[in-house]
Amino acid sequence: MFRSASRNVDWFGLMVMVMVMVFLSLLDCVCGSLDEDSCDEVKTAYMMRQIGPVELVPHTPVADESLKVCVHPGPTCCTGKMEDSYMAAVRSEMQQKMRSFSFELKYLISGNSKAYQETFQSLVSFTSNLTSTLFDSAYSALANDCRPLVHQLFSDIKRYLSGDADASLEAAVRHFYNNLFPLVYHRLLNPGFGHITTQSVPLVSTNHDDCLRMTRQDVVPFGPHPRLLASSLARALGPGRALSRLLRLAGEVVNTTEKTSLSRECGRGLVRMQYCSHCRGFTLVRPCTGLCINIMRGCLVSVSELAAPWGSLVVLLQRLAATLATSSNHNSMELALLAIRNHVNDAILYAQLHGPRITATVEKVCGPLVAPPILTTSTARPSATSPPPAVPAAQAQQSLQLQSR
């Protein structure tokens, strides 16, 4: 229903009508009478509306040739300096009314955005700590080095939920498992081979780790679990990301509207509509609706660039409404984040179960690991049989492709 209704709305026309109502609300509804011998009524209205110094208003109608906007035959109660004051007044009233009418909407948008950001940040922080405890309790050999990997993964998820255009769940999951593979391979599948340091010097070249990262997606050490994690997060977090982007875009549209400046021609039109009748003594005259609409259409030409972001806002509303309407589980985002711990655990268990196959494949591509030599002193010379150099990552990738053929 929301989709069909929003399709039929003329958003630009709606903005015109809103602005017309803004200015009609400034005007009174009762007509006054013309006093050809005095400008006292004009002076009273000028003072009550705080247009400018009341001394600018003549005591009696005069002929002022400096008028450029409120020009009409015969004597007038306006002067050129009064026209300048009227121009400043309509600009000020325009900005004040726009801020007043948009305040409630702006407060609603910012309040909901802040509440949502605080909610998902708290949830992400909790599930990040929960995932880190997996390594502390079940894989203590990996705990210290995996803690930064977990933190980076959830930081990327937080950026994705906040609507960051450069954030990608697939890239975040891929980066996490690429860096997890060398740790699992050396410390769980082949403990005692490499990453045992003497005087802070690793016995396995970082080239070997680079080879493992480059070939992780081809070796498939974690089975289908990385793909399942990425897809489940994308399904569950998509609506949350859309909501963040929607709220941000809505705030930008409102801010742009508030900061819109009036063109000189628009200001002249508003003065004619609202104050030129004062010059003839009609201080309580209300302009016709047709004149208001025509003038406001001209004024809104300067904000025509709002059409694109407003259209994007409507499209996001449609998508979010459709997604939320068909969602059977309102807690899907929370459940998906809580399930990351289980996905990671299943992936590591899969690697341990298929350890011999993974090791055999890696040795063909990246080279075998050799047990570190026993050093009697800190200054002992390295063994004559040193580990073979790690195969460069590019060569390893090519070798793996040849094997797969």
From TrEMBL:
Predominant localisation class: membrane
A GO cellular component annotation in the UniProt record: cell surface
Coiled coil: none
Domain of life: Eukaryota
Entry keywords, A to Z: Cell membrane, Glycoprotein, GPI-anchor, Heparan sulfate, Lipoprotein, Membrane, Proteoglycan, Signal, Transmembrane, Transmembrane helix
Membrane-spanning residues: 9-27
Bias kind Low complexity: ranges: 392-405
Localization terms from the record: Cell membrane
Alphabetical list of InterPro entries matching this protein: Glypican
Membrane topology designation: Lipid-anchor; GPI-anchor
Keyword Glycoprotein on entry: yes
Keyword Ribonucleoprotein set for record: no
GO biological process, one term: regulation of protein localization to membrane
Annotated spans, Disordered: 377-405
UniProt family annotation: Belongs to the glypican family.
Task performed by this protein: Cell surface proteoglycan.
Full protein name: Glypican 5b
